[in-house]
Amino acid sequence: MIGEGAYGKIFISTVGNINVAVKIISKKGKSNEYLEKFLPRELEAASKLKHENIINVFDVMESKNSVYIVMELAQGGDLLDKITEEGPLSKEEAQKIFKQIVEAVEYMHRQNMAHRDLKLENILLDSECKVKVTDFGFSKTVQKNELSNTFCGSAVYTAPEILKGEAYDAFKADVWSLGVILYGLV
Question: What protein family is recorded (predicted)?
Answer without folding.
Answer: Belongs to the protein kinase superfamily.
